[in-house]
Amino acid sequence: MADRDLRMRIHGMTCTDCEVHITRALERVGAINARADFRRGEAHLRAPEHLNEAALLDAVRQVGYTPVGIEDIGIDAKPDVSTRGPQSTPSEGIYDLAIVGSGGAAFAAAIRARDRGARVVMIERGTVGGTCVNIGCVPSKTLLRAGEISWEAGHNPFAGVATTNGPVNLAALVAQKDALVRQLRQEKYLDLIVEYGWDLVHGQAHFGTDGLLRVDGDVVHAEKILLATGASPAIPAIPGLSEVPYLTSTSALALTKLPESVVVIGSGYVALELGQLFRHLGSRVTLMQRSPRLLPSYDPEIAEAVAGALSAQGIDLVAGVRYDRIERRDGTIVVHLAVDDISRTVEGEQLLIATGRIPNTQALALDRAGIAVGTRGEIVVDEHLQTTNPNVYAAGDVTLAPQFVYVAAYEGALAAENALDGNRRSVDLSALPAVTFTNPAIATLGLTEAQAKEKGYDVKASVLPASAVPRAIVNRETRGVFKIVADAATDQILGVHVVAENAGDVIYAGVLAVKFHLTVQDLVETFAPYLTMAEGLKLATQTFGRDVHRLSCCAV
């Protein structure tokens, strides 16, 4: 029998001294890492296998307090750690804020609310942590890094350096990924519930016919409510799709056997990242899209650079597709499609659907609370993140905000402030960076050239190939581009767009430039460290006034 993590409900605590008395009493009988919380009326501890519950209860009674229950909340140091965390039913009385969901928006909101002394309850129907840590950012990016290393080992551009890559043990790689997910879920989510002291209730939240928030059959009484239930993969209506097996971003990250070939429907960031992941690990990959070119909302130079890089790595890009039907034939997925009205088929061992995401609102019964939704089921909010019900707010992917965890966290904290303090702050995403973690990476910020012209700016733009950046040259990886969009009248930088190694790190300088209304000349006159990819931004600004190919290294 292994050590157990326990929670004990205790009556009679009134101050921090009470916490000390109970903690010491529990540790005297053998409890490990005991911690009492008088505000929550409970203690958390780890009990070695030889320590029984009766001894723990007696220890608390002997120092003058009344234990009223003890429960096992998992073994947080083992691989099969509880994904639910400390769990309770809704407490008596009224919460200041009830939060539905437990992802980035929900946790940011709970932390901000607790910092203000609010009484908070979080409601989660599944695994604590939401998309990012469990099935999104963390697992995908660690696998992407593994794929990059495997690919680079087999495609080394340096003379005299011998590297090779062999077959990938996907089961071992995924097991390591899963361990990382458990670790970060525990450290960055579950542990914080105890650290900050809010209630966690496990169950399906919904609004009753009386308009009150409920978890299963229990009413949750709260002054304000925040809905942060996230989104799930969208499945397109293609004839035959429902009759064949297919992967989504969730199940693709759980495969333990590398497919010989993967067919991807979609061309957004999920499609690009996971398509390249499987290619880097050794699969043949075909990526298909309805639009006539890759990344149609991006500047053409950016899309062309990405398409060139992916094609050079052996990914088959098929654009302008009309999907006719999908079938499974002798264990192979066959996609029947047409390009320019010419019929063809694409076959693969696995089919990955990566066509966007839809908000998780179906089970909430929002109409009962007078909460309006949009055409895709998203919760409609105003600039304060308030819904059409003045007591209810929403944040993150459930509103179809830009689907980045840092946007969700920003909105969650802002919504909590507005719910508790009045609508004092408005959402501002004007300097929002977007990164796609392909290799080379794609990072974009602000206005594209087309968008700037549509807004009436007198636009000037510079386009610098990565082959002009010294860091790219010495790395012997010159695929990519740097583009800066500016206002010709004021010289103010309006947009920054990069395709390059570490573009996600480079773009932060662009964020500061756009946020603080810097000009092209400001960047020209700012030091950029030589032989870094970030130097590409300065070179791109210098391109407005001269041919940087005719400058010496570091010339100003």
Topology at a glance:
Layout: E1 4-11, H1 16-28, E2 32-37, E3 42-47, H2 53-62, E4 66-74, E5 95-100, H3 104-115, E6 120-124, H4 130-135, H5 137-154, H6 170-196, E7 199-202, E8 205-207, E9 213-215, E10 218-219, E11 222-227, E12 231-233, H7 249-252, E13 261-265, H8 269-281, E14 284-288, H9 300-312, E15 316-318, E16 321-329, E17 332-339, E18 342-348, E19 350-353, E20 357-359, E21 392-394, H10 405-421, E22 433-436, E23 441-446, H11 449-454, E24 459-465, H12 470-475, E25 481-487, E26 493-500, H13 503-515, H14 520-524, H15 535-542
Parallel strand pairs: 5-6, 5-11, 6-7, 11-21, 13-14, 13-19, 14-15
Antiparallel strand pairs: 1-3, 1-4, 2-3, 8-9, 9-10, 12-20, 16-17, 17-18, 22-23, 23-26, 24-25, 25-26
Q: What can you tell me about this protein's structure?
A:
This protein is an alpha/beta fold and 556 residues long. It contains 15 helices and 26 strands. It has a five-stranded parallel β-sheet with strand order 7-6-5-11-21, covered by helices on one side. A five-stranded antiparallel β-sheet has the order 22-23-26-25-24, with helices on both faces. Helix 5 (137-154) packs antiparallel against helix 6 and helix 5 crosses helix 8. It is globular and about 80 Å long. It starts with a strand and ends in a 14-residue tail after the last helix. Residues 75-83 have low confidence and may be disordered.
